[in-house]
């Protein structure tokens, strides 16, 4: 799938500007600590971007699995279904190539 980190970050700013009291997150339920959740998501996007720029597909997939190893089996399984690491790598790698080509 295509990934556009700039658009994703703009969306987070927009959501934050709405000042919601909670978020209903597809596959993961609701979250009442909106500020912490958006901060964690921004941090995760930065980490994934860095990993995709430094690792190959296998390394990226292994790093994502290692990060998820500390979560519950249910959370790890949900992430694996909602965001397969190999697909995410290809989307991020394409985004990074496209961004570099336009600079």
Q: How many strands?
A: 2
Helix content, binned percent: over 70%
Q: How far apart are the termini?
A: 22 Å
Q: Overall 3D geometry?
A: globular
Structural class: mainly alpha
What's the SSE pattern?
HEEHHHH
How many strands, what sense, and barrel or not for the largest sheet?
2 strands, antiparallel
Strand order of the largest sheet: 1-2
Question: Low-confidence spans: pLDDT under 50, at least 5 residues?
Answer: none
Mean pLDDT over the residues: 93
Strand percentage lies at: 5-15%
Integer-rounded radius of gyration = 14 Å
Question: Number of helix segments?
Answer: 5
Please give a structural write-up:
- By secondary structure, this protein is mostly helical.
- Helices cover 73% and strands 6% of the residues.
- The protein has five helices and two strands.
- The chain has a two-stranded antiparallel sheet with strand order 1-2.
- A hairpin with a 3-residue loop joins strand 1 and strand 2 (29-31).
- The longest helix is centred in the middle third of the chain and has 21 residues, at 34-54.
- The protein is globular.
- The model has no long low-confidence stretch (mean pLDDT 93).
Summarize the structure.
The protein is mainly alpha-helical. Helices cover 73% and strands 6% of the residues.
Q: What are its keywords?
A:
103 residues; mainly alpha; two-stranded antiparallel ribbon
Give the secondary structure arrangement, pairings included.
Layout: H1 5-18, E1 23-25, E2 29-31, H2 34-54, H3 57-68, H4 73-82, H5 85-102
Antiparallel strand pairs: 1-2
